[in-house]
Structures are given as C-alpha cells and as structure tokens.
Amino acid sequence: MEFKSLKTIETSFRQIRFFGIVFICLCAGITGYSLWSSYSFAEKQRQKIYVLDGGKSLMLALSQDLSQNRPVEAREHVRRFHELFFTLSPDKNAIESNINRALFLVDKSAFRYYKDMEEKGYYNRVISGNINQTIRIDSIGCNFDNYPYKVVTYARQMIIRESNITERSLTTRCYLLNTVRSDNNPHGFTMEHFEILENRDISVVER
User: What's the DSSP call for residue 106?
Assistant: First the structure.
C-alpha cells in the first residue's frame, strides 16, 4: 500500500512538471507573438504621416521606402540632364544657363564635350544662324543590378533652322553614382563617364 502511494505521488509530480513545462512554453509563445505583433504594428505606423491641415484637421499621408523611388529618380535625373544640355536657343545667356545647370548633374566628362563643341564654334553657329535645338527622350534604360548603375539613353534631336528641320538620332551612355541631394541636384545622383555613342542625321525636311 505504501509503495502504491509513492508511485501515485511520483506520477502526480510528473503530471505537474509536464503541465508546468506546457504552461511555460505557452507563455513564451504568447509573449513572442505579442512582441512580434507590436513590432509589426510599430513598423506600419511609421509608414503613416499625419499632417495638420490649416490647424483644423488631421490628414493621413503615406510615406514610401526611398529605394522604391530610386529607379524613377534615376531616369528623371538623366532626362533632366539631356533636356538642359541639348536644348539650345539662339541666345548666349540661355545656352550658358542651361549648360551650367546641366553640369551640376554630371562629372567632367560632359564638360569636355561642352568645351570641344565651344572650341569648334558650335554654339556661335547656333546663335548666328538663329537655330533652335530641342530634344525628345524616347527611352532610358537603367541597370540597377550592378553599382554604379549603367544607363543608356535613346533620344531624338530636332534642329530647327529657317530653311529646314533636321532630325537626328542621339544615343548616350553613362554611369550613375549616389550622391548628396541639393538644390542643384535634387535627385541625389551624379552621372560619370558620359559619352555620346551616336549622333547622326535621320531626316531633313525643307521649310
């Protein structure tokens, strides 16, 4: 009878120990889930920005991850450079203003192109011939798999003279580096090793 009682007590202790371990594991699981849920909730809340509208009501604005916008910013950076660098009018001040703004977006490789064309008298011919030059970007291909990012741009130039309109095919290549944002460089990129791969006449239309 005494041996039976001891066996019953030992079995009871095993059951208590088993239920204790199960209870501890359950508490640990609930605690872990609560911490994970709290962290996830905090991360979601960080993506929400509340803006006070005229001191009267709160407006909800959603923030986005910066990396999601980088491809868009990269293409806009390259597009802006080409528009400034290749858009010319028969006005010396306008040409210099556009070129100076474009050079904030690129390294010295584009400056060498500018000096070469200036020494050949290209800009003087634009001014004296009353020529307008515009550019239309067809496509911008960016490779974000490797850094620095390789970019190839395909565009069309329209050279408008009094006697004719010349359409030219323009293809350029460069590499993009991340840099500090500023008023002159709002997208935070710098173009390096800029080069013109193709710049040839496609058609000439007499006026």
Answer: B
